[in-house]
Specification:
- The structure is a single chain.
- With 102 residues, the protein is mostly helical.
- It has two domains: 30 residues, no CATH class; 53 residues.
- 53% of the residues lie in helices and 7% in strands.
- It has five helices and three strands.
- It has a three-stranded antiparallel sheet with strand order 1-3-2.
- Helix 3 packs across helix 4.
- The radius of gyration is 23 Å and the shape is elongated.
- It starts with a helix and ends with a helix.
- The model has no long low-confidence stretch (mean pLDDT 87).
């Protein structure tokens, strides 16, 4: 498909108010791949990192409490390579603390 044809179809789809943006994106991706459905993104199998505020909310505590638990080694902070500060709290360590308290 020529790029001008693709742009024409893209503009026509933008003008259609009944078409949801997600459906429009899906149609355009199908057109780009010559009718083949694009592959699904790979499932995330790595560890989940939570922000400190989310960990505090799930524990029902303050940010300071979360920081103290991390300093004591109860919660595991995740530090990315080449960084000084942590990116967040490892969700598995938070779940372990919650299940131990229950």
């Amino acid at each position: 498909m020529q790029s001008t044809t693709f742009e024409l179809i893209k503009t026509a789809l933008k003008c259609d108010a009944t078409l949801a943006p997600a459906d429009r994106t899906k149609l355009l991706a199908t057109l780009r791949s010559n009718g083949k459905t694009p592959p699904a993104p790979p499932a995330n199998t790595g560890p989940t990192v939570m922000r400190r505020i989310e960990a505090a909310r799930r524990l029902g505590r303050t940010l300071r409490s979360v920081d103290q638990l991390a300093a004591e080694g109860v919660l595991k902070k995740v530090v990315l390579p080449g960084r000084q500060r942590s990116a967040g709290i490892l969700e598995s360590s938070l779940v372990a603390v919650i299940s131990a308290a229950a």
